[in-house]
Amino acid sequence: MAGRYPAAWLDELRARADIVQTVSAYVPLKKNGRNYWGLCPFHGEKTASFSVSPEKQMYYCFGCKAGGSVIQFIMDIERLSYQEAVALLAERVHMTLPEMREDPNYEQRREQRNRLLALNREAARIFHEQLFTDAGAPMLEYLRKRGVSDAAIRKFGLGAATSSWDQLYQTLRLKDFTEEELRLAGLCVVDEAHDGKPRRVRDMFRQRVIYPIIDQYGNVLAFGGRCMDGRQPKYLNTSDTPVFNKRLGVYAANLLRKERGLERVILVEGYMDVVALTQFGVRGVCATLGTALTPEQARLLKRFAPKVYLAYDGDSAGQHAILRGLDILAAENIPARVLDFPDGLDPDEFIRRDGPEAFEHLPVLLPEAYRIRRLADSFDLSAQDGRIEYAKACAPILRDLEPVDLEAQLQRLTVQTGFSREVLLEQIGRSAPVQKPTLPQRSHRYEERQTPPGQNPERVRAEETLISLFSTGQLPKDIAEEKDFEDPLLNSLYVALKEGASAPALIEAQETEADRARVSRLLQLPVGRDTDEMLLMARQCLTRLRRSRIEERIDAIQRDINHLEGAEKERAMAEYLALGQSLIELK
Predict the structure, then answer these.
(1) Which CATH architecture group holds 2-100?
(2) Which pLDDT value is given to residue 431?
(3) What is the pTM of this model?
């Protein structure tokens, strides 16, 4: 890794980037003997086992065995590559990278960058102070109405641009920043003289709530502004500048960097979504900067957590953006999930309505599950041809799913299309797993029970789906009847659920491990994104069950009617006609 840098230059970098000072910016250290000690930032511990040696300029954790130089520490703590860590340290200690020494414009560019970052930092301070003045009252009132606390305002450095045409410009000019620097930073606009009108310089942001865009190193790169007086655009963002490229960063990256042990990053669309979720205690939230997710942003997010959860708005634009985001994440080999919000709500609206506990229990969809859900919108599932084409289109999406995940999707598809599980598996190109003989070990006692002898597998799956739907508590208690469940276990579950039994009680009530495993699976399967979809699925299952029952009874009458006579034959014929009419109504 160090091959591209001269050894002497790296020695100087390590010496100037003193490891005790560098680590102390992230970990509280106390001197004990010749070394400094603290709690390891790379694994949870209560007793300090993380040692920093000023003499050796290295660190070592006696708990998790992490160790190395100051460069390795920055790589691990900031989630950077070797080259990025070296560049960051060099910037901090004002060393020129070796490849830049012969570039005559490098120092000029670095000085310009430092000036623009200082300008943005000062602008952010002014915006924040203005929020609490009379001129900033409309913006503060807006934030209050949105439920933003003072702590959140400070955490995100929120501010206000007043209605003045050039107040920010004039204030920053008095602080020795030039007009050209203000223009380069995207903080002012220059209207050149034309048609007899004089030249004028005006502020880019006016009468807006201001959201500073801060990178993972704490630099203020740009600003987003939400309009308060109805002018368009509603949200105005800084255009690309010498220090800002909207494709490369995310909003709240500075907060992401401070999070330790994140299992997933939650990516949302808007600034307020980030503010609201963070205020309610949700960890690892960030947003794209007015663009669809880019590969560069995806790679940045991968540094902070192994998975990315997409939590976009419920409108059509948000749903389309999810599909594009899933493509980007897949191309970067980043595991992804989709958070499923009910009632078309966005994250901000949902968490304010239902609270953080409900947020933590939102359905989490696999990319394949989300894709086939969106795919259903492209087909007429009320027509046989539409269901056929839909099933064919879903097949390649589901082909590589793990067996458990595939089973959950097959359950939905059997309801939506009417095709059996076996037919769908054949279309997908996978066959049902073959049961291999095994020794009677405990680890094999929880395998899913096969369809009971003499029962129709398709009917049992429909009954199981009904139980899963009914267990959510979101369906009317009278939507089904006891006679709809021919499987004895499922019938007993329906009766118990209708009487208000809890899931743990139902599981504990089962006498065999096989039944306990089956009930546990049914009560935990994800079904439906909202009440309307669950109602539709339940009615489809009930229609299929009742139609099957009627068809079987009609077949039985047809077999027996020639052996009947008199009144008994007339009753059978009347029942036959009534069943036929019921079948027509169901179809």
Answers:
(1) Alpha-Beta Complex (3.90)
(2) 59
(3) 0.66
